[in-house]
Amino acid sequence: MSEIEQINFFVPGLAKTSGSKRAFYNKKLGRSMIVPANPKQKDWQASVGWYARQEFQGQAPWDGPIRMFILTQKNLIPILTQILTNERW
After folding, report:
1. Beta bridge partners of 34
2. Residue 35: which domain range?
């Protein structure tokens, strides 16, 4: 793994879920295609990727498994409440 053991970064905006996928057969390519059903997902993924690249600032890509925690406004408030009330989360 690279020298960085942890990165943290903030992505402004509303998180877009991956959600369902839509499948269709592309006659021109001669194969099935699977695309996200949520058209806003692509913009959100691009934003997350851009902010992640800014945080890495030219570091070599990590190899091996990673663990990721994503906090959104929707799940941050219950987690903070549990921490402040000393409940286990």
Report:
1. 23
2. 21-64
